[in-house]
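Assess this today:

___
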Amino acid sequence: MQQSAPPTAPRYLYLARHGDAGHEGPALTDAGRRQAALLGRRLARVPLDAVHHGPLGRAAETARLIAAELDGATVTEAEWAGDYVPYWPERGELPASDADRILDFLGDPEPGEREAGARLVREAMAHCTGPFGGPSPRHELVVTHGFLIGWLVRAALDAPDWRWIGLNHCNAALTVIRYAPDRPASVLLFNDMAHLPAELKWTGFPKEFGAEFGELGV
């Protein structure tokens, strides 16, 4: 007798960049702590099964403040949720008009850095993408850094590997990706700041964009 396939269910991946830490400091600023608490209050309505965070202090503190607003979600540290370059492009992959700027931004990898980034991003993809192998939907939050969020959004959209670059993310903004059986991944939210008041929006984003959108009242 033919065995039926094991059940699968949608996975909802919630991605948040850590709260404001000034110039990427180890601890959050007062604004960053407010951002994290407000994001936690927004996520309190979500049936989160787990919260993962990177090992740096600003991500760990953000996760703790979010978890304080939740009802019993398990919080764990994960190396794959850390701050690293997920993919180093070659010049030939990049648009000629932007190659110099992009390669200057990334700089040269330290010995082993390229390989470490590739390993960690494989672990991230294996852990938190694709439909969930179980009968009920899975909801997971990853508190991380802008580069990994850019990579996961790029992957969900099947964009070229290098295109994680330029997908900027504000501090404590929310991105949600849905992985459902038998259909492509869906980016439901990207860089959403509806839970933040105007004075806490746009931190961690390129200043020229923050100023422009702030003037529009976004």
